[in-house]
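Hi C.,

You asked whether I'd gotten around to modeling the 131-residue construct. I have! Everything is below, sequence then structure, no commentary in between.
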Amino acid sequence: MALDKPYRDIPGTTIFDADESRKGYWLNQFCMSLMKAGNRARFKAGERAYLDEWPITEAQKQAVLARDLNRCIALGGNIYFLAKIGATDGRSFQQMAGSMTGMTEDEYRKMMVGGGRPIEGNRYRHEWEKK
């Protein structure tokens, strides 16, 4: 019997729970491998070849190659692990977060300093499904 997860419907939020952890285990392990300089060099020298060494799904590989961090999260990635990809690319966390929201790094920084994202446009999943 599946657990009741009312938090699954929080607007604009993916909760990294045990199910997400299982789904993204190997994707996150790949990301953690980038903490070692030798692995970063191997990845940058041949991203697809390095990804093919990991038992991650094709969808996860494509999301990494496209640097589509929102898709990586949807496929079980944890932002703290995914940050290793950004660091490998020489990108700051603010640059990564900005790209995930369609903003520049400066726009993202100003938004966060100014109190965060406005609530307008945030919807519960069940509200989007009705449209």
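If it helps when you're writing up: Residues 92-131 form one domain.

Thanks,
B.
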